[in-house]
Design a protein that fits this description.
14% strand; single chain; alpha/beta; 203 residues; Diaminopimelate Epimerase, Chain A, domain 1
Length: 203
């Protein structure tokens, strides 16, 4: 899932419109990976080595041939976790991916100065591509509860699941504006964070 330049511009314009209409400082961040997940290659190696060993016992009477067979299977699986994200995700649990995405979002929130706005009206919308996870972090001045944000994240999930990143983000920004407007948020104030969209490789 990658953004084209027109898609990126469209999202930036949509975020700017959210800011103007609801008086927030919205920052969208797309991270390739929120963590390196070093356990994924090792788990893949262990599993496929074991499967390779079992197959070798059944199919190869020669032990000399069996050893490179199961080691090769493990090495190939470990390498696949580096280059094939969907395969690597099989070896990283959902809870772990969620935790790392939240930690990455918290680091972005600090690094971008989202928590240092004058009116405490910053808001981060982060998508971890490898994690297929959305995190929304609002500052205290917006008075948004996690229970209010959960339906917005759930609404973005189907688009992300089929690789439609731009529609997912635009839908999320639409839903955030509707929620903020319903809570009486109005525009106004100076723009303290000029850049609305960040795309980065991540960990």
């Amino acid at each position: 899932m990658n953004l084209s330049e027109p898609e990126r511009q469209h999202i930036a314009e949509r975020a700017a419109r959210l800011e103007a209409r609801c008086g927030v400082e919205a920052v969208v961040t797309i991270a390739g990976r929120c963590d390196a997940y070093p356990e994924a290659p090792w788990k893949a190696f262990a599993l496929f080595s074991a499967l390779g060993a079992f197959a070798s016992i059944l199919l190869l009477p020669n032990a000399v041939l069996a050893i490179p067979t199961f080691l090769g299977a493990g090495a190939a699986a470990a390498l696949a976790t580096v280059f094939i994200p969907p395969f690597a995700r099989l070896f990283v649990g959902a809870a772990r991916r969620e935790t790392e995405a939240r930690q990455y979002a918290s680091a972005c929130f600090l690094a971008r100065g989202i928590g240092r706005t004058e009116r405490r009206n910053g808001l981060l919308l982060l998508v971890g591509l490898f994690e297929r996870t959305v995190v929304i972090l609002p500052d205290a001045g917006l008075d948004l509860a996690e229970a209010e944000l959960r339906p917005i994240i759930a609404g973005m999930a189907p688009q992300l699941a089929v690789g439609r990143l731009a529609p997912a983000l635009l839908g999320g920004l639409d839903a955030l504006e509707a929620l903020l407007a319903a809570k009486g948020r109005a525009g106004g104030g100076r723009d303290e964070i000029a850049q609305e969209v960040f795309v980065e490789k991540g960990a």
